[in-house]
Design brief:
The chain is of the alpha/beta class. It has 10 helices and 7 strands. Helix content is about 45%, strand content about 25%. Strand 6 and strand 7 form a beta hairpin. It binds ligand 7JF and magnesium ion.
Length: about 210
């Protein structure tokens, strides 16, 4: 039967990227998505904004909501200091199978824990299951209807501390109006918009960076 797009993306990584070289994995995926098949990775343009937020923050504990094929997982993990940890949640088991292999090919599996399941099921278990008190950075890149409820759930579970950064993808395309309204009007967040483009296209999209004020 016909292969899936994530399977073809992984094949491109194995053909064109060097094992243990995260940058080559990132470049191979960007090349595949620009010249072969579009796929919903954060991409190179928004990816550079993601890189600058991670580099400036130097986070020890990162949560990613929505792994897909692991592109942003690799982008973030390659910048983390030794001992730092990234937990990434993926609901779709077919995506998780591919992401594990992309993460392994990049050679950053020691920093990453990929958890399969629903974010709303796992967020309340971060403390007892992973020993995580609070996160320094959360990258929201899963289903747009979950951004706001999951943010409120993280608040309620005490997973955010003064200074925790929420970085949200796709705030324009496809858009997350309820989430944007919340973080931009809540006294608990200082929010700003980084204008960019939908991955591999000329359509507008952007990232919203929101600092939790406690
Ligand atoms: O669902 C997503 N999760 C994370 N990141 C995404 C992302 O970075 C995207 F660019 C898109 C996107 C946007 C525009 C478009 F035309 C197609 C897909 C989606 C998305 C949106 C709606 C769907 F029905 C399916 C996928 C996502
Ligand atoms: Mg996205």
């Amino acid at each position: 039967t016909r292969s899936t797009r994530p399977q073809r993306l992984l094949k491109a990584v194995k053909q064109h990227a060097t094992r243990g070289d995260p940058q080559s994995v990132i470049s191979a995926i960007d090349h595949f998505c620009r010249h072969r098949e579009w796929a919903m990775n954060v991409g190179d343009e928004k990816g550079c904004i993601l890189d600058s937020v991670v580099s400036e923050l130097n986070p020890e504990k990162v949560l990613e909501l929505g792994t897909y094929c692991g592109y942003s997982t690799v982008r973030i993990a390659r910048l983390l200091p030794p001992g730092a940890r990234l937990i990434t949640l993926e609901f779709n088991p077919d995506y998780a199978v591919i992401a594990r292999q992309v993460i392994a090919w990049a050679g950053i599996e020691d920093k990453v824990q990929l958890v399969e399941g629903a974010s709303e099921d796992w967020i309340p278990r971060m403390k007892e299951h992973f020993g995580i008190e609070t996160f320094d950075l959360v990258f929201l890149d899963h289903w747009k209807d979950h951004y706001l409820p999951d943010t409120k759930l993280m608040e309620g579970c005490g997973l955010l501390r003064k200074g925790t950064v929420l970085l949200a993808d796709n705030v324009i395309c496809p858009g997350v109006p309820d989430y944007l309204e919340y973080v931009r009007n809540s006294r608990s967040y200082k929010s700003c918009y980084f204008k960019s483009h939908l991955e591999y296209t000329r359509a507008e999209d952007g990232l919203e960076k929101s600092v939790f004020l406690g």
